[in-house]
Specification:
Length: 111
């Protein structure tokens, strides 16, 4: 689960973070041939910032992913609902940005 202690919702959120990391970057957050080495990395290292592996990933999305992968369960989202709210904020922000770009593009083609 990325941290020590009982398996709970924080463990599920860590697993979701690992899945999201793979979906965003095409690779797991930690990799090695020996599973023991992977476990050591999970406990001792931070994953590489997804943006450094795929520059198309918005930093706010990468930050959400990395928060899901925090070592200490208490540093992760307290609940799936808290994660959902953060994702909704990012989506709204991205949508506003996209609409602004479309409006600017529309104005530039009218001239």
């Amino acid at each position: 689960s990325g941290g020590h202690g009982a398996l709970d919702a924080h463990s599920d959120l860590y697993s979701l973070g690992a899945t999201l990391y793979y979906a965003l970057t095409g690779r797991p957050p930690f990799d090695a041939r020996d599973p023991r080495v992977i476990l050591k990395k999970v406990v001792k290292r931070r994953p590489q910032d997804p943006c450094s592996l795929n520059e198309q990933i918005p930093q706010r999305v990468a930050d959400i992913c990395l928060k899901l992968l925090e070592k200490k369960p208490t540093d992760r989202y307290p609940s799936a609902r808290a994660l959902e709210l953060d994702l909704e904020r990012v989506l709204r922000s991205q949508a506003r940005s996209m609409i602004g770009r479309l409006l600017r593009f529309g104005r530039s083609t009218e001239e």
